[in-house]
Specification:
This protein is α+β, with helices and mostly antiparallel strands. Helices cover about 10% and strands about 25% of the residues. A hairpin with a 2-residue loop joins strand 8 and strand 9. It is globular, with a radius of gyration of 18 Å. The chain starts with about 45 loop residues before the first helix and ends with a strand.
Length: about 290
C-alpha cells in the first residue's frame, strides 16, 4: 500500500521523505506534542549530519546487483538462551544477547557477533514506523539486530569503519505465521518495562530465529551507513531484507505503542514514532541480492 499522508507528506527529487514524525505535522497526524523528547531536528549537527547517514529509501531500480557476494551465513540465531534481558532504554525496547550468534559472508569483511536487537515503530497500522523505506513504502515496524566485528564491545566497534553490522527486517500485519508464538513471548515482557531504565530477565523465552519465522534471507539490500540515533557514527554495514516478517495479530503491534513510555508513566509520554526519517543517499552505492 502507499504511504499514509502523515508519513510521506513530502518527497524530494530523489524520493527521500523530508518531513518526519519529528517535524511540524498537521494536527491530524500523530507527531510529538509539547513535552515529548526532542527528535532528530535537535541532534548535534556535528554528529548526525554526515554524508553516510541512515536510514535511507531503497529502490530496486536504483541499486546494483551483487552477484559476487558470498552466501550470507547466520549461525546460532535459533538458540533461545541467547536473549538475556529486555530494557526500556528511553528509545526502544532493547534486548541484550549473550555471545553465541554470529554473521559472516555476503559482502562482509569478517565475522560479526550479535549483541542486541530492538525495534522502531510508529503509532499503529495507519501510521507505520519502520525506518527504511522499500520501494517508497514504510512498513509497520522495523527490527534491528546489531552485530559487532569479532565480538567487540559496542564502544570499541564504533571506532572502526567496518565495526558494526545491522540486520534490518520489516514487519507487517498479515496472515498467521510461524513466528507468532515467539512474538507473543517477546511482547509479553513489554508491560514489565514500561518506564525508562526498567529491565526484565528473558532467559530462554524466545529466539531470534523464532522472531524471524519463515522469512527468506536470500534477498536484501546492502549499503554503508550509520547508527540511526546519536552519535550517528558512520560505521555500519546495513543489510536490509526485502521480505518482511508477517504478524497476524494487530495486538502485537499495539503492545509496542501502548506498553512503553519514553520516561515515566506518570509523565504519560508514550513511546510512539520512535523512528528517524530517511536521510539523503547521496553518492552511495546500494547493492542488492
Amino acid at each position: 500500500p502507499p504511504l499514509s499522508p502523515c508519513t510521506a507528506l513530502m518527497l524530494s527529487s530523489d524520493s527521500v521523505p523530508t518531513l518526519s514524525p519529528y517535524s511540524s505535522v498537521p494536527s491530524s497526524c500523530p507527531g510529538p506534542v509539547a513535552g515529548q523528547p526532542p527528535g532528530p531536528k535537535t541532534w548535534p549537527r556535528k554528529h548526525c549530519s554526515g554524508r553516510r547517514q541512515s536510514p535511507v529509501a531503497l529502490w530496486a531500480d536504483r541499486s546494483v546487483p551483487a552477484s559476487h557476494f558470498k552466501v550470507l551465513e547466520m549461525s546460532g540465531y535459533e538458540n533461545p538462551t541467547l536473549p538475556i534481558k529486555v530494557t526500556n532504554d528511553g528509545h526502544s525496547a532493547n534486548v541484550n544477547l549473550r555471545p553465541g550468534a554470529w554473521l559472516s559472508g555476503g559482502g562482509l569483511s569478517g565475522n560479526y557477533t550479535a549483541q542486541s536487537f530492538h525495534l522502531h515503530w510508529g503509532k499503529g497500522l495507519n501510521f507505520p514506523g519502520a525506518e527504511h523505506l522499500l520501494e517508497g513504502t514504510r512498513a509497520s515496524m522495523e527490527l534491528h539486530v546489531v552485530h559487532t566485528k569479532d565480538g567487540l564491545p559496542m564502544n570499541k566497534a564504533v571506532k572502526l569503519k567496518d565495526g558494526v553490522v545491522v540486520l534490518a527486517f520489516m514487519t507487517n500485519v498479515s496472515d498467521p505465521s510461524p513466528s507468532e508464538a515467539s512474538w507473543n513471548d517477546f511482547t509479553s515482557f513489554l508491560g514489565l518495562v514500561p518506564e525508562k531504565d526498567n529491565e526484565q530477565p528473558v532467559f530462554g523465552n524466545f529466539s531470534l530465529k523464532g522472531l524471524l519465522g519463515a522469512v527468506k534471507t536470500l534477498h536484501y539490500y546492502f549499503y554503508q551507513g550509520s547508527l540511526t540515533t546519536p552519535l550517528c557514527q558512520e560505521v555500519v554495514s546495513w543489510i536490509v531484507f526485502r521480505e518482511p516478517i508477517l504478524l497476524s495479530s494487530l495486538p502485537r503491534v499495539r503492545n509496542f505503542t501502548s506498553s512503553l513510555f519514553y520516561t515515566t508513566a506518570s509523565e504519560g509520554r508514550r513511546m510512539v514514532n520512535n523512528f528517524r526519517p530517511a536521510q539523503p543517499l547521496g553518492r552511495r552505492k546500494v547493492l542488492r541480492l
